[in-house]
């Protein structure tokens, strides 16, 4: 089993997160995979950097807003990308942990799931199925920015989908 994301629920009012629930209320989201277990989050050098960016995303509930499958960390070299693209991606090369906090209602059932895919090495078969995580309000998702491919599915219903995302920077070891 590969741990690919850590999911935590917050005790909160309808929209505002406050304190973490007790340990027994947290759970690790796992995807079945081959090989040895890997940590859900990367091992990082001795320091973390305060996130440079925070993104508040609002997805329309009409099925038109999605985010395609991607990694949050750019792992390509300058030779693979070219100088200009390599320089444009400078903010993405230092990301080691992605944190997503959902700001939706606690009974959210309008789509917009975060689909996470099991990590694969070059040459290995790519996970095409993934695991869907419902973006209920107060849920915090943490994962390795360099290994966990993910996408956002379309939302439907009356309310837009909100997600607050930030990226912790550091050095992968």
Automatic annotation (TrEMBL):
Residues 50-170 form the Fe2OG dioxygenase domain. GO terms for molecular function: ferrous iron binding; L-ascorbic acid binding; peptidyl-proline dioxygenase activity. Its EC number is 1.14.11.-. InterPro entries: HIF_prolyl_hydroxylases, Oxoglu/Fe-dep_dioxygenase_dom, Pro_4_hyd_alph_FE2OG_OXY. It comes from the Eukaryota. One of its GO terms (biological process) is cellular response to hypoxia. Pfam families: 2OG-FeII_Oxy_3 (PF13640). Keywords: Oxidoreductase, Vitamin C. This is 2OG-Fe(II) oxygenase. It comes from Skeletonema marinoi.
């Amino acid at each position: 089993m590969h741990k690919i994301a850590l999911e935590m629920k917050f005790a909160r009012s309808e929209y505002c997160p406050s304190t973490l629930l007790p340990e027994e209320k947290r759970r690790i989201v796992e995807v079945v995979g081959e090989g040895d277990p890997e940590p859900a989050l990367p091992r990082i050098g001795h320091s973390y950097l305060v996130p440079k960016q925070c993104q508040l995303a609002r997805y329309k509930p009409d099925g038109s807003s999605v985010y395609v499958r991607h990694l949050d960390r750019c792992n390509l070299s300058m030779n693979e990308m070219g100088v200009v693209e390599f320089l444009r991606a400078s903010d993405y090369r230092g990301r080691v942990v992605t944190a997503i906090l959902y700001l939706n209602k606690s009974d959210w059932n309008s789509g917009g799931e975060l689909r996470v895919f099991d990590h694969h090495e070059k040459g290995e078969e790519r996970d095409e199925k993934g695991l869907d995580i419902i973006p209920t309000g107060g849920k915090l998702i943490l994962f390795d920015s360099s290994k966990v491919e993910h996408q956002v599915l379309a939302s439907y219903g009356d309310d837009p989908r909100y997600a607050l995302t930030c990226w912790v920077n550091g050095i992968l070891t």
